[in-house]
Amino acid sequence: MVERVPREAQARAAELRREIERHNRLYYRDDAPEISDAEYDRLFHELADLEARHPSLRSADSPTQRVGAAPGTQFATVVHRVPMLSLANAFDDADVEAFDRRCREGLEVEKVEYSCEPKFDGLAVSLAYEDGVLVQGATRGDGARGEDVTANLRTVHSIPLRLEVRRAPKLLEVRGEVIMLRRDFEEVNRRALERGERTFVNPRNAAAGGLRQLDPKLTAKRKLSFFAYGIGTAEGFEAPATHAKLLDFLAEAGFPVAKNRRIAHGAADLLAFYREVGAGRAALPYDIDGVVYKVNRSAEQERLGFVSRAPRWAIAHKFPAEEATTELLDIGVQVGRTGALTPVARLKPVFVGGTTIENATLHNEDEVRRKDIWRRDTVIVRRAGDVIPEVAGVAKAGPREPRDRFEMPAACPECGSAVVRLEDEAVARCTGGLVCPAQRKQALLHFAQRRAMDIEGLGDKLVDQLVEGGVVRTPADLYRLGIANLAALERMGGKSAANLVAAIEKSKDTTLPRFLYALGIRNVGEVTARDLARHFGTLDAIMEASAEALQEAPDVGPVVAESIATFMNERHNREGIEQLRAVGVHWAEGEPARRARAGPFAGKIVVLTGTLAGMTRDEAKERIEAAGGKVTGSVSKKTDYVVAGAEAGSKLERAQELGVRVLDEEEFLKLLGA
Ligand code: IVH
After folding, report:
1. Which of 636, 670, 666 lies closest to 654, judged by CA?
2. What percent of the chain has pLDDT over 90?
């Protein structure tokens, strides 16, 4: 039985399809979306729903049909009606000048007009549109025959399923490059890492793998992109008179085309284009491996014709490679500002991406294992965009004696503290947070923070100077600073030196939660520090507690407990703490636990709203917590008090609705006993 679809449903489906395709073009071709992802999803789901109710609306060019096909077992062969040629290469200025000379002589003109564009580093494909609808997509293969990867190419969102033209040609083959954006490449590799799979060496390999998946659903996950740069067979199509106009036509028809393209006259112009694109290469969201110069006028292209398998009217001017192979001399370890240990490749110097590289990151121990990298292997080094050079993989294994295998050291190369690697973490870390020179600046800044020891005026510029000048090594050194030490520093007058010394002195009188937080123990934030202080009462109790005992404190799980125990077990850190006590840092021991249990807010849940005249919100929070209460963000039936300052808003209303007790500032202070 033929399904009868109501007129309105037909019209709405057509409208949705047009809208969705328009937003696709805005997003993928123009990089200028007009609606949010959520709104897009709404349109998409409305269309999918309509089509589910009326399956006959589900045409092949519907945007819902991008990932429709079932997995295949192999790809059919496609014979290219017009062969897919390659390009001759130019590597230096002289090659480009020779190309220009050949074109001038062949055409017998003084100056040739060229169309210049980037050379995308991906895979060439050909897309056949019959009467404007995408019917076949094929890889280049050997140029004469490729593979039918239509189902996979349909998942590429920047490939239009229907040409956006007034009169569709009977047949038009659009040619271009399938690529993977750098950010999608990083995402693919991140996911591979999570699953313990091998990562891809570069976006091109990741794109190639994606294109050759037998299951289009897997291709869709790779998020491939497409740029059009030419056409193949055409029937019922009047080809534009120049290449530039052809690209304009393709852009109008819905394809992304290179944005940085330009008309040039003569070799000097070509070289200027090359330098400009080269300089902007790192900032592009995708890899390019050169630029392509094409004689602009189609009539002139025809006159020049072809040599063997490449056109005489075009040439690729290659950039210095972003990849190279070299020998891995050694694997060292670098300690980062947060204590993370990163294996670093020491390489036989190699020229990559325009500079000489001697060191490259190996990320972490698991990466070294997964890529199976050993000392003395020949490796592929890659440097793309602004990213740090990395060892992408092994080109050829070396002798691989036992000493060539990489092992993470057990002690930090900077400070000798123990190195640990917590479960669930890919990264090995130095546990000497308080004493490790690599972590010094970070540790001091954290220590001095307002929410930690609250040393006013000790910012990053000053910490840089103090550490680089060797004046301060550990937090305890701060308390040994005199006005004279400080006044000797750049941009530091006698007055500010005196202020800083006073601020440091003042910070000695602190609380246990602040001190604990200031130590910079991994995974110990302010809340955990407070919970620990309240539960254990004294620093010594915390220092002596086992990982099991630590977990008895509220909200302390195994990971946090392990971090604390590891930190406290490190001799260097214990010494650092002792030094701080010795220079006079102190707090009321045992206080928090007792006061909290007996305090006026013991066990109470409090919400703060509006502005208090006499204290900041942070101070109010601290006072409530010191008095045994807990501060939460939203009012519920469980809330005991809402403290309302000036201009209290919806939280006050909610409290009144629920009948929660509201305290004004005066009542609040009274209850605090202030
Ligand atoms: S034109 C007959 N333009 O480079 C000329 N090719 O080395 C056809 N490529 O197989 C190619 N960006 O995969 C052309 N803007 C561009 C290109 C480009 C990348 C690739 C293409 C081709 C290879 C030739």
Report:
1. 636
2. 58
pLDDT exceeds 70 at position 363: yes
pTM of the full structure: 0.62
Neighbours of 659 (CB within 10 A): 8
Characterize the bridge pairing of strands 145-147 and 133-139: unpaired
146 CB under 6 A from ligand 1? no
Q: Is 119 a catalytic residue?
A: yes
pLDDT at 72 over 80: no
pLDDT grade for 649, boundaries at 50, 70 and 90? confident
- Smallest CA-to-CA distance from 70 within 1, 126, 150 is with 150
DSSP code of residue 26: I
Helix axes 182-194, 203-211, angle to 10 degrees: 80
Sheet of strand 288-295, all strands in order from the earlier edge strand to the far edge: 88-90, 314-318, 288-295, 113-120, 262-265
Q: Which residue has the higher pLDDT, 624 or 422?
A: 624
Return all residues near 362 (Cβ < 8 A) that are at least 6 apart: 331, 342, 343, 344, 345, 368, 371, 373, 390, 391, 406
User: By three-state DSSP, how is residue 442 classified?
Assistant: helix
Is a pLDDT exceeding 70 seen at residue 591? no
Tokens linked to 50: 């309509």
Whether the per-residue pLDDT at 454 is higher than 90: the answer is yes
Instruction: For residue 31, give Cα distances in angstroms to 24, 25, 247, 526.
Output: 10, 8, 17, 42
User: Nearest-CA neighbor of 439 among 570, 586, 578?
Assistant: 570
- Per-residue model confidence (pLDDT) at position 594: 55
How far, in Å, from the CA of 133 to the mean position of ligand 1? 24
Active-site residue among 119, 223, 604, 621?
119
Question: Residue 86 Cα, ligand 1 centroid: separation in angstroms?
Answer: 6
- State the Cα torsion 538-539-542-544 to the nearest 10°: -110
Query: For the chain, what is the mean pLDDT?
Result: 90
Residues 429 and 409: their CA atoms lie apart, in Å, by 10
Verify whether ligand 1 is closer than 6 Å to residue 260 (CB atom).
Answer: no
What is the rounded average pLDDT of the residues 229-245? 96
Three-state DSSP at 153 gives helix
